[in-house]
Specification:
By secondary structure, this protein is mostly helical. The chain has one domain: Arc Repressor Mutant, subunit A. It is 42% helix and 5% strand. The protein is globular and about 50 Å long. The mean pLDDT is 94.
Length: 76
């Protein structure tokens, strides 16, 4: 895990969605920005309090969640 202390899950913040600790910026939002072509430097500049390490933690969190995903095929 590359994100302890950086990614938080708190039912009182964003309905419990994983977010960058100390912010209301969700992992989902960060991944969306990156998918839309935002550069790391642009995100850090636009969202004060977010560091490059926070962005890497978001990616690591998403990677680890996807590792747990399983696909169930139907025999039909």
């Amino acid at each position: 895990m590359a994100y302890p202390g950086r990614i938080a899950l708190d039912p009182a913040v964003l309905g419990g969605k994983p977010h960058i600790r100390g912010t209301r910026i969700s992992v989902e939002f960060v991944i969306g920005l990156m998918a839309d072509g935002w550069a790391e430097a642009d995100i850090v500049r636009e969202y004060q309090g977010v560091s490059p390490e926070d962005l890497r933690a978001c990616l690591a969190y998403a990677r680890d969640v996807l590792k747990l995903e399983t696909i169930h095929t139907s025999a039909a």
